[in-house]
């Protein structure tokens, strides 16, 4: 699913730089990424998602060589192949839970909202236990409910790859385990790969594999 | 459609801000149009009525006050003249004089004391009831009747001209005999009665009521303070009479309808002397000057409106900009979810378009309402 070789990236201005000699993630694998803050975990997710382009090396995700894709193609790739889950949920406050789940279809390039998508959104909400809260706005939802909505939003496009950045960071211990289980179950249903950045070592045994970023990257 | 969906959802979520923006937008769009509609309507109404009034005779002083008072029944009060001025026009044999006494009001409407010649002169038609015939009778303009919900058989009581009239001058109850058909002129906002009736309101004429009435206890009341207003009835009408020389009775102005152009010119010549306490004005000329002044002021108003409009648009722009700043996290999320490069522009355009559409709808409604009621509003403005 993900294959990176001699990946190098530096932010403009000569600040933080990242080098990854090799990274391979298999399809349907659930990989946890750990490491101290500031070591480039989120930058790696951004590279894999095509948010930024590597300065050097090769990066293939879901069969697409991201280095060869232009900006529009990378946006389209992201919309159709990648699901994002964020620590702060990143829900849109003026949309209710149901419309938040469908949000990728409102903004994403190459996505078309139709009856099938709406049915899939309802099914996901049912599976995630928030079917009864679909008309509620994010401000009326608990943290766990908001993250369930965010998971539904990440899965509704049936992505090949799910990127989670501290997805359970804002949740209490019981809720974070339930949320991670939910994410893994739904990902398994969809045959999706999960690459999740986390600081929570209690959750690491649940991953198929853990990459310690401190040992993965080379200093710039 | 997605952009419009999101824009609508955001506007609905921030409804208070949206409401303010829509109202400001509607005002920016409608105020210049409403002003134009009212200005054009006022110009037409002013000019039409002025041109239908050949000459006005009144006290020397402000020609504008005289014309506004005599032709449009405005609040401007010209100095009164004596009835002898009307007689002089009669005696000249050059024109038909129509007396006007506009010193009193009832229920916010001007009481116009005049003669039946005024009805013919203005081409007024009775829509309901009959024409006034006796002392104390009145006919209502269409708008007054509509506003007060009154008709033939009802009564109205005159208001004192000022507080000082409370001393001895009693309000008079006027018997309504008819309602005039609507004309879209200041006549719709007036209450017409015979000029002699207004002299009774002024205290120049009066009747003698039997105010010495024993009550049930045998007490006798003979205090004028118990009288709340005068009423002219078939029983006491014959007792009404006037004091003093009739030539001294006051008039607000005299409408003068010359029999021909030459007669009008001769009449005007008789009042050219600056020492003469009377003046003969041509309303069309006075109004032409007024309209010219109004449109010069309107040009200034347009400039002020433009500046205010630009300032308001700036405020709206700032409000939208700040709103977009607050939406930075949403924009970042959208970018991560694969939003197109121009998504923000599309959303901003959709939001502005929706605001404009609603504002334009409200502005159109406002302008339509003003246009449909233009005559009524103009008549009301002219009566101020």
Could you give the order of the helices and strands of chain B? HHEHEHEEHEEHEEEHEEEEEEEHEHHHH
Strand content of chain A: 15-25%
Number of strands of chain A: 9
Structural category of chain B is: alpha+beta
**How many helices of chain B?**
12
Describe the overall structure.
- The complex is a heterodimer of chains A (220) and B (384).
- In chain A, strand 1 and strand 2 form a beta hairpin.
- Chain A starts with a strand and ends with a helix.
- Chain A has a five-stranded parallel sheet with strand order 6-7-8-3-9, with helices on both faces. Chain A has a four-stranded antiparallel sheet with strand order 2-1-4-5, with helices on one face.
- In chain A, helix 6 packs parallel to helix 7.
- The longest helix of chain A is centred in the C-terminal third of the chain and has 17 residues.
- Chain A is built from eight helices and nine strands.
- Chain A is an alpha/beta fold and 220 residues long.
- The radius of gyration of chain A is 17 Å and the shape is globular.
- By secondary structure, chain B is of the alpha+beta class.
- Chain B contains twelve helices and 17 strands.
- In chain B, strand 3 and strand 4 form a beta hairpin.
- The longest helix of chain B is centred in the C-terminal third of the chain and has 44 residues.
- Chains A and B meet through helix 2, strand 6 and helix 4 of A and helix 1 and helix 10 of B.
Descriptive tags:
A: 220 residues; alpha/beta; five-stranded parallel sheet; four-stranded antiparallel sheet; 8 helices; B: 384 residues; alpha+beta; eleven-stranded mixed sheet; two-stranded antiparallel ribbon; 17 strands
In short:
The complex is a heterodimer of chains A (220) and B (384). Chain A is of the alpha/beta class and 220 residues long. Chain A is built from 8 helices and 9 strands.
Chain-wise SSE layout:
The complex is a heterodimer of chains A (220) and B (384).
Chain A (H helix, E strand, L loop, with lengths): L1 E9 L6 E9 L4 E5 L6 H9 L6 E6 L2 E2 L5 H11 E5 L10 H5 L1 H5 L7 H13 L15 H13 L5 E5 L7 H17 L3 E5 L11 E4 H4 L4
Parallel strand pairs in A: 3-8, 3-9, 6-7, 7-8
Antiparallel strand pairs in A: 1-2, 1-4, 4-5
Chain B lengths: L1 H12 L1 H37 L3 E5 L3 H10 L8 E2 H10 L2 E12 L2 E6 L1 H7 L3 E4 L7 E4 L1 H7 L6 E3 L14 E9 L9 E5 H7 L3 E2 L6 E2 L5 E2 L8 E2 L9 E2 L7 E2 L1 E6 L2 H10 L7 E4 L1 H44 L1 H9 L6 H30 L1 H10 L1
Parallel strand pairs in B: 4-9, 6-8, 8-13
Antiparallel strand pairs in B: 1-16, 1-17, 2-15, 3-4, 3-16, 5-8, 6-9, 7-8, 10-14, 11-12
Helix pairs in contact in B: 1-11, 2-9, 2-11, 2-12, 3-9
């Amino acid at each position: 699913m993900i294959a990176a070789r001699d990946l190098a990236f530096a932010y403009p201005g000569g600040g933080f730089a990242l080098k990854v000699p090799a990274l391979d993630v298999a399809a349907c694998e659930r990989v946890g990424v750990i490491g101290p803050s500031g070591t480039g975990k989120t930058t790696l997710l951004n590279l894999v998602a095509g948010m930024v382009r590597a300065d050097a090396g090769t990066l293939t995700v879901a069969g697409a060589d991201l280095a060869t894709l232009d900006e529009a193609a990378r946006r389209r790739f992201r919309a159709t192949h990648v699901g994002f889950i964020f620590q702060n949920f990143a829900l849109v406050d003026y949309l209710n839970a149901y419309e938040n789940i469908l949000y990728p279809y409102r903004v994403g390039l190459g996505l078309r909202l139709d009856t099938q998508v709406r049915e899939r959104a309802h099914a996901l909400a049912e599976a995630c236990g928030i079917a009864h809260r679909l008309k509620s706005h994010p401000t009326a939802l608990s943290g766990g409910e908001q993250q369930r909505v965010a998971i539904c939003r990440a899965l509704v496009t049936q992505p090949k790859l799910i990127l989670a950045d501290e997805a359970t960071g804002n949740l209490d211990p019981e809720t974070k385990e339930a949320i991670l289980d939910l994410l893994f179950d739904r990902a398994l249903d969809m045959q999706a790969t999960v690459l999740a950045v986390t600081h929570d070592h209690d959750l690491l045994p649940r991953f198929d594999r853990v990459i310690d970023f401190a040992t993965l990257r080379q200093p710039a | 459609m997605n952009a419009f969906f999101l824009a609508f959802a955001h506007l609905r979520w921030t409804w208070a801000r949206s409401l303010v923006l829509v109202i400001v937008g509607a005002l920016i769009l409608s105020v210049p149009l409403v002003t134009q509609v009212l200005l054009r309507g006022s110009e037409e109404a002013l000019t039409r009525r002025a041109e239908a009034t050949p000459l006005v005779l009144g006290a020397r002083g402000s020609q504008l006050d005289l014309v506004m008072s005599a032709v449009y029944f405005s609040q401007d009060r010209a100095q009164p003249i004596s009835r002898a001025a009307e007689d002089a026009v009669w005696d000249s044999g050059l024109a038909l004089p129509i007396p006007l006494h506009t010193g009193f009001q009832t229920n916010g409407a001007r009481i116009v004391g005049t003669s039946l010649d005024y009805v013919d002169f203005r081409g007024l038609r009775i829509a309901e009831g009959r024409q006034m015939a006796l002392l104390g009778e009145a006919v209502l303009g269409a708008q007054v009747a509509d506003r007060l919900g009154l008709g033939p058989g009802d009564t109205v009581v005159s208001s004192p001209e000022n507080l000082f009239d409370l001393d001895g001058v009693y309000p008079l109850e006027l018997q309504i005999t008819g309602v005039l058909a609507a004309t879209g002129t200041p006549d719709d906002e007036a209450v017409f009665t015979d000029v002699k009736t207004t002299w009774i309101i002024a205290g120049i004429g009066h009747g003698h009521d039997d105010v010495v009435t024993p009550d049930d206890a045998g007490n006798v009341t003979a205090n004028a303070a118990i009288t709340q207003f005068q009423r002219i009835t078939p029983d006491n009408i014959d007792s009404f009479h006037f004091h003093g020389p009739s030539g001294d009775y006051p008039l607000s102005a005299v409408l003068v309808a010359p029999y021909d152009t030459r007669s009008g010119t001769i009449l005007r010549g008789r009042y050219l002397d600056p020492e003469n306490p009377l003046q003969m004005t041509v309303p069309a000329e006075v109004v032409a000057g007024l309209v010219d002044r109004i449109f010069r002021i309107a040009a200034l108003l347009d400039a002020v409106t433009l500046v205010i409009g630009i300032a308001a648009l700036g405020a709206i722009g700032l409000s939208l900009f700040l709103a977009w700043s607050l939406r930075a996290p949403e924009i970042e999320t959208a970018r991560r979810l694969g939003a197109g490069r121009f998504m923000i522009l599309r959303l901003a355009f959709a939001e502005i378009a929706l605001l404009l559409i609603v504002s334009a709808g409200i502005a159109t409604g406002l302008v339509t309402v003003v246009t449909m009621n233009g005559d009524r509003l103009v008549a009301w403005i002219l009566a101020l």
